[in-house]
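The record is passed on directly below:
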Amino acid sequence: MAWSTPRTWNSGETVTAALMNAHLRDQLNVLKTKIDDNGLLRTLYAGPAVAGNVTTGEDTLTSFTATGGNLSALGHGFDVMLNGSLANNTNAKTIRFKVGSISLTLLSAYAAAVAGNRFMIRLQVTWDGNTACRVSGWMSYGAAQGATPILLQWGGNQMAGLSGWSADQTVSFTGEATATNDILPTECVVNAIR
């Protein structure tokens, strides 16, 4: 839906539901769209389903398709947030971020037992104009409720080997652990950046 020229009303005109919907509701929906401080449109790209890991091996925690046409210009990409919990045990837990078959390890073999251990990952992924994307962001984890968490930060890590964003890409977070739900995400939100 796009903005349309506001209607000029005439005296004595009958106002109908269709007119009100087209010239009030629909216009307000356009105004409600998220726009960042630079005036760029940031739309909700996906709210993919999440699932915990299943016993041993690498399991997909969440995934979505990044449409190539929307990510084909310099600086285009997406902003992604994943949060959840890590089980209160000493099983090794690894979390990876993947674009296609290219992966970046975010958490490697973390094995601390912490009650109430929550994690949050926030990444910004942008196409750099060649055959790679850049990943910047942070992850906090490893603390009981009310305690100071461990903070990891990434500043422009390059995920080389991608064929560019002209084609669709499968984007995912994966988890590798020992017991079912050692890594249990609760929400994933993805916004396109154009």
Notes: The helical segments are 17-32.
